[in-house]
Amino acid sequence: MKTKDFLSFIDLSFVRIKRGTAGCIAPVFLILLFTATYVQAQFCFSPERPQVGQVVSFTYTPQTTPLAADSTLEGRYVRYGAPNVIQLSQPTTVKLVRQGNDFVGELFIPRKDVAGMMLLFRNSLQPKRTDLNNGQLYVIPVCDANGRIVPHATGGQASVFSRSHFLYESGGRPDPNWVVTLYAHELAQNPELRPYYWSDLLAAQVKQKKPGYGPVVKAGIESYLASRPTPTAAELTTAAQLYESLGDFPKATALRERQKLVEPTGSLAQKDRSMAIRTEPNWERKKAAYQAFMTEFPNSSYLPALTVMMTDGYFKNNDIPGLVTFVEKQPTSHTDVLMLNTIAFQLADERRSLPEAEKIIKRAIDVLTLQPRSGNKASNWEAEKQTRQRQLMNTYARVREQQGDYAGAYAAYQTVIDPNEIESTEPRLTERYFLCALQTNHVAEARPMAEAAVQAGKATSGLKRALRDWYARQPGNTPAKADAYLTQLEADLRADQRDELQQLLINEPAPAFTLTDLLGRTISSSAFKGKVIVLDFWATWCGPCIASFPAMQQAQTRFQNDPNVKFLFVNTREGGPVQRVHNFMSKHPYNFVVPLDGQQKVANAYKVQGIPTKVVIGPDGRVRYRTIGYSGNPESTVNELSLVVEMLKEGK
What we know:
Pfam families: Redoxin. By secondary structure, this protein is an alpha+beta fold. Among the domains are: 3-176, Immunoglobulin-like, CATH 2.60.40.10; 211-262, no CATH class; 429-500, no CATH class; 508-649, 3-Layer(aba) Sandwich (Glutaredoxin), CATH 3.40.30.10.
């Protein structure tokens, strides 16, 4: 083929070798047009200059491609056009029929918006095996009635690379040099399309990072804006984003200020107003500013988030009647049902504003039934909606329960409780469900769930106590039988826990110590020979230490009548006057023995890395258990520590 033959069809940066009426292409960069040596083309299509409304037949020959050894092939293609119709670039599969060494297929070109089609080929059984034509894909351009390539046929290819995920889904990455070449060629052929592509070309040059690209891109921005007597707000926004990508934030800020002048009630102005509302510290002025914003910009994209913020504001300012009035006026699109759920549950748990809490949760339930699918298309909205419904009904049940309507609460809890999901059910929910069952004579229905929770280790101490007390009241039963009943329920669980704890037991020497406690008494390890000693290292400034104290109090109470178990709460790393420890203990109802380890000698001897640290010394005078931190679960803390003590008492 002669050079003039290429120049006659240079509208696209690929070369066609004529074969009858078919166009056969082997993409190359423009600078290679005059020097390339060609072998048999691997992709041909017919008609050679396809137009809209036509069916295009194509032939793909994989012999010289990565798919040369594959026999089960399919095509994936996108239609493309101007940047504003990038939604055309939705990947679609096209079937291929094998004919000897070739694969053939057909594509239809719609009559609207399409400037071309881009294809890749892959193994239909192993989609990661692809031929992406060196990242440039295979192109079928659309021509007009005169056989000329239509506008956007080249720039549209670049848009597929820079504005869609077609290449990414097949494991490819756009070549920024090729993208720049496509954009530049489109604008060279169709300069009137500059408003469509100017920013995309400059953004591609930023990604290309060719030496000296910064001044080139800035010059391109200024040149384009200068060519527009009155740049639109969108153009100013795009220019500002380009400056930001170059790190020139002063110019970006200046353009955004200019945009506000062009569009005084536009997105940027609304953003500033919404930010002013968010940062307004005075609650009354915040409410007034929000009302003004809602009146002036009823369709603002910032309004839903502002509405959620105001909902939270009413709650934090303890204006619960105002909150009810506010949320009942909001459209469903501005209502965060999960936030309303959280607010209503907290009010119910605190026995505060219960009638208002009921109105809030009812509003949330009503809104949920009307809300459309969430924005995440990948999510299963119906399943998510059911989950939210259960959360809301749990709160509604809690509100009714706290108001003394146990029948209504029990009915609501029944819509929440699933006996098959005991492992994932929040233990307090099971407890509340059973307590309502006790109040409404439905123990027969609720008992299996309660027993399953105990057996699975998902029962609170309150639930176990309620179940035990109920059992003891039954005809012919006694407290001793009730204790045995509960012990039997937990037998398998405790056996499993003991097996797990057995693996955690250690065996180290227990250093001797002598300390003075808060009452001035001498506390010596030698006085506890043959006993199990629980050491809890703590300080008044340690949040997790203090948080664990209720659980530690329960554990100590469990063994309070056992002379062979001793709990010592060793204050260490206090870093302040001893009076601070005295003050803390005088304000809290803990009957702890508190030895003072002011020099941290005992803590260091027992390898305390951080606090709280619990250390258990066995009757043999050796350290058998050590744990650091607090899980936040008092029930598991009490159970684990109690099991360790019992195992050591048994000589394990």
